[in-house]
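Hey, can you fold this one?
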Amino acid sequence: MKITIVIARFLLGLIFLVFGLNGFFHFIPTPPPPSGAAGQFVGALVVSNYLVVVFLLQFVSAVLLLINRWVPLALTLLAPIIVNILLFHVLMAPSGLALAIVVTVLWIVVFLSVRSAFAGLLQQRLPAQGLR
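Sure. Predicted structure:
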């Protein structure tokens, strides 16, 4: 199981490192822009420079995953990005859904290996505390 976790963490880090760096250096050929709502959405992200922040967060998270430091922080930074990638492909551009699902599964595998770091977030109720 440890080998699976290491491989999942490494692959997740590698995927986001490549796509994060591609956002700055454009070494992967860009496909034609999607049409319809997907095209408008991507256009708005590009024009607003929103993607610069997303690519920076992807890069930072990828480095943290690859060096195996602050993995819970990296997962926390990647979670909303992955949710947006999934929603984009489910709702607007199903062509990239396979990679989005692979990334989601990798994220879940790595998350389950460090879930104790999220224990405080996953509590239904906090014990009552008196005033100090």
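The longest helix spans residues 2-25. Let me know if you want another pass with a different chain boundary.
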